[in-house]
Amino acid sequence: MDPSPNPFNPSVLTVEDCCTKITQLLESAHLHYGHGANNAQSEALWIVSKQLGISPTEALDLGDKPLSTKMTQDAINIAQQRISRREPLAYLLGEAWLMGIPFDCTPQSIIPRSFIAELIVHGELDPWLPADGKVLDLCTGNGSLAILTALHYPDLHITASDLSLPALALAARNVERHHVNNQIDVFHGDLWNALPDTEEDHRFDLIICNPPYVNEASMRALPPEYQAEPREALAGGLNGMDIITRIIAGAADYLNERGALVMEIGNEYEYFHQAFPHIPAIWLEVSAGDQQVCIILAEDLQK
């Protein structure tokens, strides 16, 4: 009996054709998304754009462009790996995109997807970013938030810190990739222990942080794609507040008088309010709503 025909014909596929076929393939596999792309169609475009060496956004305008046989077959192979391995696409491609900026991405670090990136790029944090100001990216991971800040505010000095040495090695690669070495200093350590001291020279106008905040029950229910990420970058304890509690306890010592702490807390809005009913957090609007990211003024952290 002849084998089943291959649904892909590498000799005739355009960008649009290939994206359509790969979308169908991914959708049939019941995968989980959320690591830079929210659905099969977006991941298909990402896979194909990688073969062209351009961003997914740029690939949108090239639907009629024919792909070489090798490009098409390589794209198909990646889609098949995505299905068989159930790993985030960013790890398979070695790259992730955040707010239109590419970052080296490996299992050494959580995949960049923080909603704080929207606030940086859209200028929502301008009131806390004076000229020649200082910013701390706490729990920096692969350095994406620190780098986005440096790219959009070239007059700022930025400190990035993390407990994970492998993550910091990846962050250093990304800092080098985007040529912001002169703006960003990288420190290793457990939260505040990573920083030299609390003297005035080491206080910040703004601290941004996307900490581990997933509660224990949610951690147990994570699909394989999320389990592929470093557990320590996700797990926040029983109610998700273990690391956040330590951050809030020490933040005032590292902020200037008019400074502020910006934190992403994901889906733990209710747990946050239960843990810190006395803190008048201001909730910021991002694409996922107004219960994902908060800002706390330095004066309110001292109460």
TrEMBL record:
Domain Methyltransferase small: from-to ranges: 131-218
Molecular-function annotations in GO: nucleic acid binding; protein-glutamine N-methyltransferase activity
EC number in record: 2.1.1.298
GO cellular component, one term: ribosome
The entry's keywords: Methyltransferase, Ribonucleoprotein, Ribosomal protein, S-adenosyl-L-methionine, Transferase
Broad enzyme group: transferase
Keyword S-adenosyl-L-methionine: yes
Record's keyword annotation contains Transferase: yes
Pfam families xrefs: MTS, PrmC_N
Domain Release factor glutamine methyltransferase N-terminal, residue spans: 35-94
GO aspect biological process, one term: methylation
NCBIfam families: hemK_fam, L3_gln_methyl
Entry protein name: 50S ribosomal protein L3 N(5)-glutamine methyltransferase
